[in-house]
Amino acid sequence: MIRLRDLSKEYDQRKVLRGVNLTVETGEFVFLTGSSGAGKSTLLKLLYAAERPTNGEVWVAGSRVDQLPRHRLHELRRKIGIIFQDFKLLRRKTVMENLTFVLRFHGLSPREAQRRAYQVLKRLGLHHRQLAYPDSLSGGEQQRVAIARALAYQPRLILADEPTGNLDADLAAEFLSLLCDINYQGATVVVATHDHGLLESIPARTVMLQQGSVHYDGRWPP
């Protein structure tokens, strides 16, 4: 699903990633960890082409992402669901509209977008909140809407960037359980986190970045 070759990224001559080589197989669940500034978020941005590498190759689902022209990025992003720490929900749109907006962007008809959105909201126990606005939701509900939006177009790869940073321990555990279910159903999942409690909660592969390089790759704790 993911293959990185000699990947490097610099900002104003400051090296954020240095010669990263990494392979993630289809269906894997992987934690990406490291201290603040280790390069976790930058690596995820390179996977969904929000950034371009300074050097190296980025392959996702058989496509070389770092060479994709801008007019073909939508093809890549149809395969990827992204969950951000701050959710990035559209505040002036209802829960349902947050999902259908993304589905319409990916080319679904209004009727199919509505059907698909309701289906995933029901799966996550949010169908009764479909007409609510994000500011009226609890933190846990907002997180589930963010997950629903990422799942709505049935992506092959889920990327989560510090997804439990704003959640308490119980909500973080619920979120991780949902991600495990998604992974069990076939999606590849990569979770960037510095929360060691999260790393220790399930026996998943853990990749640790240190000063922009892969320092450890295996089960946690080392």
Please give a structural write-up:
- The protein has 222 residues and is α/β, with parallel strands linked by helices.
- The chain has helices spanning 40-47, 73-77, 95-105, 110-123, 139-151, 169-184, 196-199, and strands at residues 2-11, 14-24, 29-33, 55-60, 63-64, 80-84, 157-161, 188-192, 205-210, 213-219.
- The chain has a domain at 90-154.
- It has a 6-stranded mixed sheet, sandwiched between helices. A 4-stranded antiparallel sheet has the order 2-1-4-5, covered by helices on one side.
- A hairpin with a 2-residue loop joins strand 1 and strand 2.
- Helix 3 (95-105) crosses helix 4.
- The longest helix has 16 residues, at 169-184.
- The chain is globular, with a radius of gyration of 17 Å.
- The model has no long low-confidence stretch (mean pLDDT 91).
